[in-house]
Amino acid sequence: MTAFAPPVTLTGPHVRLEPLRSEHHDALVQAVRDGELWQLWYTAIPTPEGMAIEITRRLDLQAKGSMCPFAVIDPASNQAVGMTTYMNIDATHRRVEIGSTWYRQSVQRTPLNTEAKRLLLAHAFEQLHCIAVEFRTHFFNHQSRRAIERLGAKLDGVLRSHQINTHPLSAGALRDTCVYSIIASEWPNVRAHLDFQLSRSAPKDIRSC
């Protein structure tokens, strides 16, 4: 049976999203070292030593049909500068979550993230015919929340005590998760908004969401 969200390459002027492969490992290790991103306590970003395990984890979820992982490629260098995914894929109800996203520090606050989200949303609504796309982030990840809201997503609610944190700086603490979504009827306006943002000066993007 064909997967609801099979691997696909999505391309724009500022970014290319290509199916994650083990060959992306070395570039992703260099990317995560730019800013020591794994130190952020309110999000889950792999360490350099854990990158191979994280790639394997995402590819295993892809094989099970619950994730479609991408390597985020900077066209200027043709190197992987981060990762993103369709996750928690619900084929029955045509819903996906865009998440598990991070970028190296040097490409943050550039059009790269805005265009990556624009490509993922367009594919979800126009090719996969999703009825809704979700975004989830830690209550204290204020950068991520602001960036999700700038996309045009609306807050559905907060899942209180949703998860147990595993980061060493907050291990055992309970995470409140903010759930946002864009529904299909909102996509035309969101698309116009993102196209307008991309036509202007580089927007301030986030570290991860």
Key terms:
disordered C terminus; alpha+beta; Aminopeptidase; 5 helices; 30% helix; single chain; 8-stranded mixed sheet; 209 residues
Describe this entry's structure for a reader:
The chain is built from 5 helices and 8 strands; from the N terminus they run E-E-H-H-E-E-E-H-E-H-E-E-H. With 209 residues, it is α+β, with helices and mostly antiparallel strands. The protein has an 8-stranded mixed sheet, sandwiched between helices.
Number of strands: 8
The separation of the N and C termini measures 31 Å
User: Low-confidence segments, ≥5 residues, pLDDT <50?
Assistant: 202-209
Number of helices: 5
Shape call: globular
User: Structural class from helices and strands?
Assistant: alpha+beta
**Cross-sheet strand order for the largest sheet:** 1-2-3-4-5-6-8-7
What sequence of helices (H) and strands (E) makes up the elements? Answer: EEHHEEEHEHEEH
- Which CATH top level class fits? Alpha Beta
CATH fold-level assignment: Aminopeptidase
